Amino acid sequence: MSAVLVRGEEWSKIPDDLYIPPDALEVILEEFAGPLDLLLYLIRRDNIDVLDIPMAEVTRQYMTYVEIMKAVKLELAADYLVMAAVLAEIKSRMLLPRPASADVEEADPRAELVRRLLEYERYQAACEDLEARPRVGRELFLPEIPMEARNLERPAPKVTLDDLLGALRAVMQREDAFAHHRIMREPLSVRERMTRILEQVRSDGFTEFSMLFQVGEGKRGVVVTFLAILELVRESLVTLIQNEPFAPIHVKAAA
Amino acid sequence: MSEIRIRDIVQAALLVAGEPLTLERLGSLFAEEAQPARSELMGALEEIRAACADGPLELQCIDKAYRLQTRAEYAPWLNRLFAERPARYSRAVLETLAIIAYRQPTTRGEIEAIRGVAVSSDIIKTLISREWIRQVGTKEVPGRPALYGTTRAFLENFNLTSLGDLPPLSELKTMPGQTADATEPVDQAAEFEATASEAAESEAAESEAHESETSRSEAPP
Amino acid sequence: MSEIRIRDIVQAALLVAGEPLTLERLGSLFAEEAQPARSELMGALEEIRAACADGPLELQCIDKAYRLQTRAEYAPWLNRLFAERPARYSRAVLETLAIIAYRQPTTRGEIEAIRGVAVSSDIIKTLISREWIRQVGTKEVPGRPALYGTTRAFLENFNLTSLGDLPPLSELKTMPGQTADATEPVDQAAEFEATASEAAESEAAESEAHESETSRSEAPP
Q1: Which stretches of chain C sit within 8 Å of chain B by CB?
Q2: What value of ipTM does the predicted structure carry?
C-alpha cells in the first residue's frame, strides 16, 4: 500500500480548501472501481438524491478527488478524465437558460448521466449480493473422502442392437461382398438352432437323432431343428449315421 | 454391518465424488439389473437431506446435480484447517462477474459501458482461469467481440442451484419526466431477468419437494 | 439448526480435510479460549465412530491421525463412479459380431470373405472374452477352422428372446438413409424373407398354444 507515501509529500500538495473526510483517503486508496463508482460514492456520502444531483457541487468534489488521485500517483484511468469532461459539460448546460418550450426529453442535461448511474448502481448491488454469498473454499467446504478398495477397471463397451444392425448394414452396403456370399439364407431361428446342435453333438461319440428334438417345442420346433440338421449336413458340419433301415439315426460332429 | 441400502450407496458416492452428481450419474452406480427408479434415488436424497439436518453437512442442488457440503456456520473452524486463505477478488473482478452473470451472453464493450471504465484483459483472464466464465460465442458486429457467459463451476462455487437462484436485479429508478422507453441496456437486463425467472420456475417444478429446504440452506447465516 | 458441538466440528474437519488429522490438528481448529481437552476430542472421535456404524463411512486411525473413509463393501458401487468411460468397440468388432449372429455357425474365413478384410484374432478374442460368441465346433475342411456361434449372454445383452427377434435383412435394407436400389442383394433378402415367413405361417397356424413355450425353449439353457 502506498499509505505512507500518501502521508508523505504528496499529501501536502493537496489544496487546503478541499474537504476530505477522514475515511475518504482510505476509500480512494482502496481504488474505486471506476468514475461511476466514485460519483456514486460522493452522492451517497452526502445523501444526495441521485435523481436531482447538484451538478456544481458534485463536479467540484469529483475534481477534488481526481486531483488527489493524481497527487498520490494512483494509476489514473483515462475514464476518470472523460467523466470529468462530461460533468463539466453538464454543469455548463445547466447554467444556460432553458428554452420556454423545452422538449420534456431535452429538459434535463443530467438525464443520461443519471441513467448510467442508476444502471450501474443495480449491478453494484448485484455484485454485493454475489460477494455475500457463501462461497466454496471460503464458507463452504466439500467432503473429500478417500475410497477404500478402489479398483479401476475399464468397463466393457456397451453395444446396442442399433449399433449391431448399423454394422451389418455397413457390411451389406459393400455391394459385392453381399452379391457373392449368401449371407443369411435361412431363417435366423434355423441358424441359431444349428449353433445349439453343434454344441450338443460331439465328434468322438454319437448323439441320437431324436435327442435333438424337444417334445415341448411342438411342430414349429421340430421343423426348425430338422432344417438346422439338414443345413448342417449340407455344410458338412455333422454326419448322420444309420446302420440299417429304421434303425436309430445318430448324429456326429464332422470328425 | 447391516444391509447396504440405496441411500447408503448414494451417500457414499456424494462423499467421495468431489463434484456434484446428477441423478443419471447416481443411477449408473448400480448394476443394470439392480437399477433403482428415479423416484427411489430422489427418495434416497431426501432421506440423506433429512439425516444431515443434525450434522455439519447439507445437501445442495447445483444445476440438477447434487452435492454434500458443510454448513456455512462451520466456516470459522474449518478455515483454521487450511493454511491457505481463500482468494480475494477486487471489486473490478467481482463487478465484471456480476454483470456477466446477469447479462450473459455479453461482451467486454457492454460491461465497460455499464461500469464506465475499461475492463482490462487481466480481469477477463482471471475470471476465465478461475473457470467462472467462458467465451460462449462471438457477437456479429464489427470487430466480432467475444461473448461471455458464466459456467457450471460458477454455480458450484457461488452455491447457486441455477442462474435463476440469483436475486433479481433491483428495480431501475426513473427520473421524473423521463419516459419509460429506457435505453437498450435496460431492456436487455429486463429480458434477462425474465429468462432467469422462467428458468427458476421450470427448476422449481422439477424439485418442488426441495424448494423450501433448498432456499433455506442457501441463505447465508 | 441446533448448537454446534465439538463432535460436529471434528466430523466436519474429518470430512473436508482430504488427509488424516492428528489430535493436535483437530485441537487447532478451536480458538484458544475454547480449546477442548484431549479427552474431549477422543470422546468426540468415539462418538463419530459409533454414529458411523450405520452408514457408509468408517473411522480409521493411521499413525495417530484420523480419517473417515468409505467401507470396503461399497467398492463395487463406488468403482463405477470413477470408472473410465467405457471403451468403444471398433467397427470391425461390431461387423464381425453381426455376421456371426446372422450367419452362425460360421468360420473366420467366411466372415473375412463377407467383410472383404482379414478378421484379426483379437476381434474374435474380444467377442469370446465378452462371452457373446463361442466356438461351437470345427469345420471339416482343410485347416479345420473353428465354427463360432452366439451365446445366451449375447441374447440377454441385446434383449432378444431368440435370434428370430433380430430384424430380417429386408427391413435393414429399407431403413432410413438407405437407397432402395432393387439389385440382387435386395432380391436375396426378399428370398430369405419368403422362406422365413412361410415357415412361420405354417407353424403359427398349428401351434399358437405353444407360442410362448417355444420361444422360451429356443433360448439355450
Answers
A1: 1-2, 4, 8-9, 11-13, 15-17, 25, 28-30, 54-57, 70-71, 73-74, 77-78, 80-81
A2: 0.62
